[in-house]
Amino acid sequence: MPDEVLVTVDGDAVQQIAASFGLEVRSQRQSQLLGTTLVRFGIPDGRPVGVVLAQLAADGRTLRREPNHIYALQQAATVVNYAFERIALDSREASGENVRIAVIDTAIDDTNPALSGVIADQFDAMPDVPIEARDHGTSIDGLIAGVGALKGMAPGARIYHARAFEGGKSTMDIILAAFDWAAEQDVRIINMSFVGPKNDLLGVACRNARALGIVLVAAAGNNGPKAPYGYPAAFDGVIAVTATDAKDGLMQQANRGAYVFLSAPGVEMVAPSGAGSDVVTGTSFAAAIVTGAIANLLHAAPDRSADWVEKALAATARDLGPKGRDNDFGYGLLDTKAAEAAKE
Known about the structure:
It is built from nine helices and 16 strands. It has helices at 14-21, 49-57, 83-86, 135-145, 172-183, 200-211, 283-300, 306-316, 336-341; strands at residues 4-9, 24-31, 36-42, 62-67, 70-73, 100-106, 119-124, 158-165, 169-171, 189-192, 194-195, 215-219, 238-244, 262-265, 269-273, 276-280.
C-alpha cells in the first residue's frame, strides 16, 4: 500500500509515535503470533514508504517496521481428480477425519455440496469489503476436504476458513489478522495459497506458528522461472509447493528456486467453485493437495509433529528432474503412501 506502514510497538506509545512522525493510526491490535501490538499507520502527506520506514527506524519505541505489502492468490489462467493416483493416496481410504486445518483465502460458497459439513468455523478479516468472489477459496477447501462427487484429499477434516482476499489481493495487515485467528483455532495445518514479497512481520508469524507445532503449507508461486522468491513459501519452516501436471511435468509458469520444497498436482484439476465446479491450475491448488495429504498422515497418527511431517515428505518424495533436491521440483513429487510408512 503506497501510503501505509506496519509497525510493532511495545507499551502505550502509539499516539505519540503518530504525532511525532505526522502519521495517522488507521488500525491497531494485539497480535498473538507477533507477541506485541501491530499498528497500521497511514502516511497522509505523500512521503514515500521507504522514507517513513527510515524515519521510524531511529525511534526506539518501534520494534519492527515494514511496508503493508500486497499479496496475490496463486491461481493461473486457464477429469476426475488425477491427484490421488499421482501422490499415491487411495481415494477409497483417504481421510482427514477430525484433523483441524486453517485456510487463509477468499470467501467461500459454503452452500456448495462439496463443502457440506466441512467448514467448522469462518472468520472475515476484511468485513468492510463486500464479497464478490468465492471461487478460489471454495476450490482450495474442496481440494483439501471436499465430500461427495468432488471428493477432496482428506474428507472428514475440519476446515477453519479465514477470508483475507478480495479481487485476488490482500494486504499484510489483513493477512496477519487472519493468521492470528487461524493460530488461535488449535489447528494442525495452515494452508496459504498466496504469494507476495518478503515481509519480516510475516516471517515472525510463520516462525512462531511453527513453534506452536503447526504445519505450514504455501504456494511457491506462478510468476515464472525468473521471478523472485515467493513468500510466505520461502520462509524457513514453510513447506513450499510447486505444481505438476498429470504426467508429472512442471507447470510452465511456476516459480523456481532453492526454497521449493515439494511438487504436487496442480494443473487442470477439477475442483469445486462458487459456481459449482471448474478446472483449476496453479501452485495454490498444489498446496491444497499437500495440505490434504498431510491431514491423512496426521489422522493416521495424531502425535506426528510438524518436524516429522517435513522430514518424512522430503525423504519419501519421488525424485523428479535432476537427481536430488533441485530448484524446479524441490525434493520431488509427494508420495503419501511412502510418507505414511516413514519411521521416526
